[in-house]
Write a structure and sequence with these properties.
The complex is a heterodimer of chains A (442) and B (486). Helix content of chain A is 66%, strand content 5%. With 442 residues, chain A is mainly alpha-helical. Chain A has two domains: 124 residues, no CATH class; 223 residues, MetI-like fold, CATH 1.10.3720.10. The radius of gyration of chain A is 32 Å and the shape is extended. In chain B, helix 2 runs antiparallel to helix 6. Classes of the chains: A mainly alpha (442), B mainly alpha (486). The interface between A and B is large, with 87 and 93 residues. Chain A: This is Phosphate transport system permease protein PstA.
C-alpha cells in the first residue's frame, strides 16, 4: 500500500507537470507505458512467427531434400543375348562381371566411340540384375529385351543436382567427361528420370548398391509392430481405464497405480528400450530385431497415453447415463459396458490413434532391441513369421540411412521421412475426423 | 503341436461351452428366461471363461518358462565335465541351440524321426552336413558333448510340448465341463462373470505397476552387476569417458545438461511468449490457426528433428560460425555440436512449453484480469503483474517437465551432438550425452556380461532417477504453490 500512496502524492519538482497534464496531450509516462505495451505485444508476435518460421523451414527442408528420393535416373537399353553368350558368361569366374561387360558392349554399340570404363562408371553394376533376369526367364534368351538400368548413384546425383560438375573435377569415380557423356545419353533419350517404385517397395541395400535401397520392408516391419501395439494396448488400456475411472475405490493400491501411470508417461523412451533389452531379450529369450519385441516395448510406452485419454473420454460421459442404466436394473458392470463404453468409444479411438502415431514415430527404444543396421533385407515369407523375423521399422531405417557415409543415403533418409510423415498425417486426420464426426457434447 | 493349433482347439471348446451352457440354462428354466437368475448369455459366457482363462494362463506361462527350464538343465550337461566361464558357456549354449534347431527342423520336415535323432552319435554320423541341409550353419564340427546336449534339448522340448498340449486342452475341457455341470436356473451366472471381469480389469490396471517394477528391476540387477566390475566411485566421479576402460559419467552429464540448457534457452522464451500472445491477445481466428500449427511441431517424430539437426541446422551453423564462414570466426569445426543439438531440441520443445503454459494461463480467473484492467493497468502490465505471478508455479512446473524431456531425448543428440565426451564450456564443440552413450554401448554385438555393455544400464538408471526426480519435483511445485481461486 505504501507504494500506491507514494505514487499518488505529488512529488516536488513533478508537481508543475501534473498540473499541466491533459487528456489530449500524452504524458511521457503514458507514452512509455504504451511503448512498453507495444513492445510486449511484439515479443508475442515474434515468438509465434518464429515458431511458424521453424515449422516452414522444417517442412521446406524435408520436401526439398526428400522428394528427389521418389524419382530415379535410369538408362534404357535393348539387349539381345544368345544362348552362346549366356553359356560363355556362365563359364567365367566373375559371372556378373561377364554380364556387365555384355551390357556395356551393347551400350558402346549404341553410343559409338566411347571407352567402356566410362559407360561402366555411368551405369554402375547391372550384372547381377541381368543374370537374375536370365536365370528366372530362360525363354527370353535370343529375344530382344528392353532393360531399365538404374544409373550409378553419382550420375543420379548429377541429374538431381546433388553433385556438381565442379565437385567432380578431380574425381576418379565420375569424371567431367563422363558427365558430358551422361548429358549426351540424356539428349538421345537413353537416360531418363522416372518414378522410383523401388524406393517404396524395396529392401535395405548395401553400400555397393545404394540406389536400390528402399523403405518397403521396414514399412512392413512398422505395420507388424503397430498391429502388436494395437492388439495389446487397446484392450489393456481400456480395461485399466475402466477400472480406475469406474470401479476403483480410493485406497493405497489405486493411488499406487495412478502414480505409476503418470510417471510412466514421463519416462524417457530410451528407458523402455533398456527394459525391452533386459526383460524381453535377455531374460525371456525372445529374438533380437523382431517386430514382436518392438511391438511389446512400444505397447508399454503407449499404454499411459491411451489410459490417460481413455479416462478423459470416460469422464466426459455424464453421470445421468450411468444413473439411468442403474435405475432400470442394470448392474454396475452392465451400465459401464453397455452404455458408458459405447458412448466413450469415439474419444477412446481418437486417443488410441494418436497413441499409435506416437509409437510409429518412436526410434530410440528400437535401436536398443536391435532393429537397426542391415536388418530390413527381405519381406517375411509368411504372415505369421513376420512377427519374429528380423526386421527394421521406418524410423529405425531412416536412422540407419542417416548414419551411413554415402550422400545418396541422406536423400533416402529424407524420402523415408516423407513416407513416415504421410502415415502420421493420415492417422492424425482420421483422428480429427473421428472426433469431429462422432464426438458428442453433453 | 504348435501354439496356434492349441489356441484354435481351446477356442472351439470355448464356443461349444458357450452354446452348450446357454442351452442348458434355457432348458433348465423351461425355455422361459424369466425363470433364470441371469440372462442366458451370462451362463454361456461363464462356461466360456471357465474354459479359456485357466488354459490360456497355463499356455502363456508354459511357453514362457519352458525354454528357461530346458536351458538350465542343458547347462548342467555342458558344465558336467568342465568348469566354463560365463562367456564360454554362452558360446557353447548358442552352438547347442543351433544344433537343436537343426535337429528339430529335421524332425519337422520328416527327414528323420525322433528315435533316429536320439540315436545319433557324433563319432559315428557326421551331423554337420545334415544341419547344413536344414539351413543351419554350424561353425565347427559337432562335438559329442554338444550333440548330447542338443539331443537332450530336443527331447525335453518334445516332451514339454506334448505335456503342454495335453495339459492345456485338458484344462480347457475340464473347466468348460465344470461350468456346464454347474449351470442351472438358480446358478448366479452374472455375479460369477462379473467377478471374473473385475479381476481382469484389475489385472490390466496393475500392468502399469508391473512395468515400473520391470524397469527398476532390469536396471538395478544390471547396474549392481556393473558396479561389481567397475568401482561406483569411478563411475560417478570420473571425469573421463572413452567407452571401454574409462567410464566416468561426469562428461556425459555435463553434455546432457549443457544441451538441455541451450534447448530451454530457445524454447522457454519463445514458448512462453507464444502462449501469452495466444491466450491474451490473439483473435479467435489467429488462435485457431496458430495453435494447431505450433502443435504440429510436437507431433513430428524426433528422428525427423535428428536428421534436421545433422543435415540442415548443423551445416547451416557451420557456414555461419565455422572457418571462412559468414562472421569470419573459426569457432566451429564440425556440423555436430552442442549448439546444433540444443537449438533443434529447443524447437522441438516450443509446443510443449507453449501448450502447457497456455492451459495454465487460461486457468487464471478472468476476474483478476478485469480487476487489474479496471484499475487502469495496460494489458501487458496486467500480464506481468497479475497473470504471471498467479500462473508462475504452473509455468515453473511446465519448464521442469520440458527439462526432463530434454534430458531424456535421444535421437536429436544421437544425430546432432557428436560422440566426443569432454568437459568444455564451448557450445560449438561436439559433446556427448547420457542417452547417446546408452545407444552406442548397447547397439551392435555387445557382450552383455562386459562392463562396456553393463555401463549402459547404470547410465539408464541415472537417467531414470534424474527424470523421475524432475517430474516429481515439478508436481510438488505445482501442488504446493498453486493458488486456489474458487
Amino acid at each position: 500500500m505504501t507504494d500506491a500512496t507514494a505514487s499518488h502524492t505529488p512529488q516536488p519538482g513533478q508537481g508543475g507537470e501534473t498540473a499541466k497534464s491533459s487528456l489530449f496531450t500524452v504524458s511521457p509516462r503514458t507514452r512509455r507505458r504504451n511503448a512498453s505495451e507495444r513492445r510486449f505485444k511484439a515479443y508475442g508476435v515474434t515468438a509465434i512467427l518464429l515458431g511458424l518460421l521453424f515449422l516452414c523451414f522444417l517442412v521446406y527442408s524435408i520436401l526439398s531434400k526428400g522428394l528427389p528420393a521418389f524419382t530415379r535416373t535410369v538408362a534404357e537399353v535393348e539387349l539381345t543375348l544368345t544362348q552362346a553368350q549366356i553359356d560363355e558368361a556362365e563359364s567365367t569366374l566373375l559371372k556378373t562381371g561377364a554380364y556387365r561387360d555384355l551390357m556395356i558392349a551393347e551400350l558402346g554399340k549404341v553410343l559409338g566411340d566411347v571407352e567402356p570404363d566410362a559407360i561402366q562408371r555411368i551405369v554402375g553394376n547391372p550384372g547381377a540384375m541381368l543374370r537374375n533376369f536370365y536365370t528366372a526367364n530362360p525363354d527370353a534368351i535370343g529375344d530382344t529385351v528392353a532393360f531399365e538400368l538404374p544409373t550409378a548413384s553419382r550420375v543420379d546425383g548429377y541429374f538431381k543436382g546433388r553433385i556438381t560438375r565442379e565437385g567432380q573435377a578431380n574425381s576418379t569415380f565420375l569424371t567431367p567427361a563422363d558427365l558430358d557423356l551422361a548429358d549426351r545419353m540424356q539428349e538421345e533419350g537413353i537416360i531418363k528420370r522416372e518414378f522410383n517404385w523401388q524406393f517404396l517397395t524395396g529392401a535395405e541395400a548395401s553400400d555397393d548398391n545404394p540406389v536400390a535401397a528402399g523403405i518397403g520392408v521396414s514399412v512392413v516391419g512398422s505395420l507388424y509392430m503397430m498391429f502388436v501395439v494395437l492388439a495389446l494396448s487397446l484392450p489393456i488400456g481400456v480395461a485399466a481405464s475402466i477400472y480406475l475411472e469406474e470401479f476403483a475405490p480410493k485406497n493405497r493400491f489405486t493411488d499406487l497405480i495412478e502414480v505409476n501411470i503418470s510417471n510412466l508417461a514421463a519416462v524417457p523412451s530410451i528407458v523402455f528400450g533398456i527394459l525391452g533389452l533386459a526383460f524381453f531379450i535377455q531374460f525371456a529369450g525372445l529374438p533380437r530385431s523382431a517386430p514382436l519385441v518392438g511391438g511389446l516395448v512400444l505397447t508399454l510406452m503407449t499404454l499411459p497415453t491411451i489410459i490417460i485419454s481413455t479416462r478423459a473420454s470416460l469422464r466426459a460421459v455424464p453421470p445421468s447415463i450411468r444413473d439411468a442404466a442403474l435405475g432400470v436394473g442394470a448392474s454396475k458392470m452392465q451400465s459401464v459396458f453397455h452404455h458408458v463404453l459405447p458412448l466413450a468409444l469415439p474419444g477412446i479411438l481418437t486417443g488410441t490413434i494418436i497413441g499409435l502415431a506416437q509409437a510409429l514415430g518412436e526410434t530410440a527404444p528400437l535401436l536398443l532391441i536391435g532393429m537397426v543396421g542391415f536388418v530390413a533385407l527381405r519381406y517375411p515369407d509368411t504372415i505369421a513369421s513376420g512377427f519374429l523375423d528380423s526386421n527394421s521399422a521406418m524410423p529405425a531405417q531412416i536412422y540407419t540411412w542417416a548414419a551411413r557415409a554415402d550422400q545418396i543415403f541422406y536423400e533416402k533418409a529424407w524420402g523415408g521421412i516423407i513416407v513416415l510423415l504421410v502415415f502420421l498425417l493420415t492417422m492424425n486426420i482420421i483422428a480429427v475426423i473421428l472426433r469431429r464426426r462422432f464426438e458428442r457434447r453433453w | 503341436m504348435p501354439n496356434l493349433w492349441i489356441l484354435i482347439i481351446i477356442g472351439v471348446v470355448a464356443v461349444m461351452g458357450f452354446v452348450g451352457a446357454r442351452q442348458r440354462a434355457l432348458s433348465s428354466g423351461q425355455g422361459d428366461i424369466r425363470n433364470l437368475h441371469s440372462l442366458p448369455s451370462f451362463y454361456g459366457t461363464n462356461a466360456m471363461l471357465a474354459g479359456l482363462i485357466p488354459s490360456l494362463v497355463v499356455l502363456a506361462l508354459w511357453t514362457a518358462f519352458q525354454p528357461l527350464v530346458i536351458q538350465s538343465s542343458v547347462t548342467h550337461i555342458i558344465e558336467a565335465d568342465q568348469e566354463l566361464s560365463d562367456g564360454q558357456l554362452s558360446l557353447a549354449m548358442t552352438d547347442v541351440r543351433r544344433i537343436a534347431t537343426g535337429l528339430e527342423l529335421a524332425i519337422e520336415t520328416g527327414r528323420l524321426d525322433l528315435n533316429q535323432v536320439m540315436d545319433m552319435r557324433a563319432d559315428v554320423t557326421d551331423v554337420r552336413p545334415l544341419l547344413g541341409e536344414m539351413g543351419v550353419a554350424v561353425g565347427s564340427d559337432v562335438t559329442p558333448r554338444d550333440l548330447d546336449a542338443a539331443q537332450r534339448f530336443v527331447a525335453m522340448a518334445q516332451t514339454g510340448n506334448l505335456l503342454k498340449t495335453v495339459l492345456v486342452i485338458a484344462l480347457s475341457v475340464l473347466g468348460t465341463a465344470f461350468a456346464f455341470v454347474r449351470t442351472s436356473a438358480v446358478f448366479r451366472a452374472r455375479n460369477a462373470v462379473e467377478r471374473v471381469t473385475m479381476a481382469l480389469l484389475i489385472a490390466a490396471a496393475s500392468i502399469a505397476i508391473l512395468t515400473t517394477v520391470g524397469i527398476v528391476l532390469s536396471m538395478i540387477v544390471n547396474t549392481v552387476e556393473f558396479f561389481r566390475l567397475y568401482p561406483a566411485t569411478d563411475f560417478f566421479f570420473g571425469t573421463r569417458w572413452n567407452g571401454t576402460s574409462q567410464l566416468g559419467v561426469l562428461p556425459l552429464l555435463w553434455g546432457t545438461l549443457y544441451i538441455s540448457v541451450i534447448a530451454l534457452i530457445v524454447a522457454v522464451p519463445i514458448g512462453l511468449f507464444a502462449a501469452i500472445y495466444l491466450s491474451e491477445y490473439a483473435s479467435p481466428a489467429v488462435r485457431s490457426f496458430a495453435k494447431p500449427a505450433l502443435e504440429v511441431l510436437a507431433g513430428i517424430p524426433t528422428i525427423v528433428y535428428g536428421l534436421f539437426a545433422l543435415l540442415t541446422v548443423g551445416p547451416f551453423l557451420l557456414r555461419v560460425f565455422g572457418s571462412g564462414g559468414t562472421f569470419g570466426v573459426d569457432w566451429m569445426s564440425g556440423a555436430t555440436a552442442v549448439i546444433t543439438a540444443g537449438v533443434v531440441m529447443g524447437i522441438m520443445l516450443i509446443p510443449f512449453v507453449s501448450s502447457l503454459s497456455d492451459d495454465i494461463i487460461n486457468a487464471v480467473p478472468q476476474a483478476m484480469r478485469d480487476g487489474s484492467l479496471g484499475l487502469g493497468a495496460t494489458p501487458s502490465e496486467t500480464i506481468k503483474q497479475v497473470v504471471m505471478p498467479a500462473a508462475l508455479p504452473g509455468i515453473v512446473g511446465a519448464i521442469l517437465l520440458a527439462a526432463s524431456r530434454a534430458i531424456g531425448e535421444t535421437m536429436i543428440v544421437v544425430l546432432g551432438a557428436g560422440a566426443a565426451a569432454r568437459l568444455s564450456m564451448n557450445p560449438f564443440e561436439a559433446m556427448t550425452t547420457v542417452t547417446t552413450r546408452i545407444v552406442s554401448q548397447l547397439t551392435g554385438d555387445a557382450d552383455f556380461t562386459s562392463a562396456q555393455a553393463l555401463v549402459a544400464f547404470a547410465l539408464g538408471m541415472t537417467l531414470f532417477v534424474i527424470t523421475l526426480a524432475l517430474n516429481v519435483f515439478a508436481l510438488y511445485i505445482v501442488r504446493k504453490y498453486r493458488e486456489q481461486y474458487d
